[in-house]
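Lab notebook, bench 4. Still working through the backlog of constructs that have no structural model yet. Next entry is a single chain of 191 residues. Request: give me the C-alpha cells for it.
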Amino acid sequence: MMKLLGFIFFWICFIKSEGQLNNKLKTDTVLNTDDYSIIKKNAINSPTGTSVIWKKTGEVIYQGKKDSLPFSILAIYNELSTRADGFFKEKKYSSAVSLYHAAFTINNDLGKVKHRYNAACCYSMLDNTAAAFTELFKLAKKGKYYNYLEISTEDRFDRLQSDSQWKELLSIVRENAETMKEKLNSEIGNH
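Model written out:
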C-alpha cells in the first residue's frame, strides 16, 4: 500500500511539475552583460537551441541548432574566439577583447594560449595594465607559456615593461622555457 501511495504521489508531482515547466518562458539567459547575451532556448519550442547576441550591433554571433541542447560550450567558445581573432587582426582591440572575455566566461574562465595572449595585447593597447597582467599571468602560470623571445619583443607590451610585474612575468616565462627545454631533451634522450 505504501508503495502504491508513493507511486501515486510521484506521478502527481511529476505531472504537476511538467505542467509548470510547460507554462514557463522557454528562454533562459545564461550570461548577460553590457556587451553580449548568451541565451539558451528550449529546443522543443524554438527553432534555435542557443544564441549569442552581441549587444553593440544586435548581431547574432552564434546560433545553435534545434537539437543542440545541452548547447556546446566549445562551439560557442570557438565562434566567439574566431570573431575576436578577426577584430584583433583589424586592430579593433575593444571589440576583440569583449569577445575574448565572453569566450573565457562561457568556458568557465578557460581559454587557449593564443587567445589569452591576444587578449593581453588588447588590454595593453587599451591602456588597461591590470587586465593585461591578469591575462599574462594566467598565460604564464596556468598555460605554462614558454615563448620568451615572443613575449619579450612584443611591441604591444611596450607600455607594460616599466611596471614591476613585467620582470616577474618574464621570470616565470623563462622558467617555463627551461622546463620545456629539459622535457624535450629528456624525450630526445629516451629515443
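Notes after review: The two ends are 71 Å apart (CA to CA). The beta strands are 27-32, 36-41, 50-54, 59-63. Flag for follow-up if needed.
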